[in-house]
């Protein structure tokens, strides 16, 4: 078998299409166009435990260098109740499961495809009767 440039290119292309590889230090697939437009394949995002909890997991998908005004990530809550006070505005788009936002003993419920907006200063509980996965978008990005 002759190893040609075309054969090597074909092998590299097939490996890249198969996925499960890292782009730089990112544990998910993300491509940035020279224009600044960024494509993130949310299905490849692997969330990590938040504050040592296994029932609350998340992964920021944009850095401050890439997007200094808005932040974005993916969060998973699994049969849990997680208290939080927002120092930023947040949109959540439910990807899977049921996400409940509890505020002042009221429950706002979102299911797959729904978008929830939580204003800055809200003291809430993220709650889920099942395993929920959602994308979050925050403003400002440097909220800490």
TrEMBL record:
Give the InterPro entries listed for this entry. EutQ, RmlC-like_jellyroll, RmlC_Cupin_sf
Q: Where is the signal peptide?
A: none
CDD domains associated with the record? cupin_EutQ
PANTHER family associated with the record: ACETATE KINASE EUTQ (PTHR36169:SF1), ETHANOLAMINE UTILIZATION PROTEIN EUTQ (PTHR36169)
Which named protein is this? Ethanolamine utilization protein EutQ
Lineage, highest ranks first: Bacteria, Bacillati, Bacillota, Clostridia, Eubacteriales
């Amino acid at each position: 078998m002759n190893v040609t440039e075309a054969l090597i290119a074909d092998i590299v292309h097939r490996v890249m299409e198969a996925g499960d590889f890292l782009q730089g230090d990112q544990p998910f697939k993300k491509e940035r166009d020279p224009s600044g437009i960024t494509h993130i394949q949310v299905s490849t995002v692997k969330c990590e435990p938040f504050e040592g909890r296994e029932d609350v997991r998340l992964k920021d998908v944009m850095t401050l260098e890439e997007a200094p005004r808005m932040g974005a990530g993916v969060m998973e809550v699994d049969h849990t109740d997680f208290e939080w006070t927002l120092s930023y505005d947040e949109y959540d788009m439910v990807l899977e499961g049921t996400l409940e936002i509890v505020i002042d003993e009221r429950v706002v419920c979102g299911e797959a495809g729904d978008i929830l907006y939580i204003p800055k200063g809200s003291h809430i509980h993220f709650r889920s009767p099942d395993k929920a996965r959602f994308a979050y978008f925050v403003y400002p990005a440097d909220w800490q």
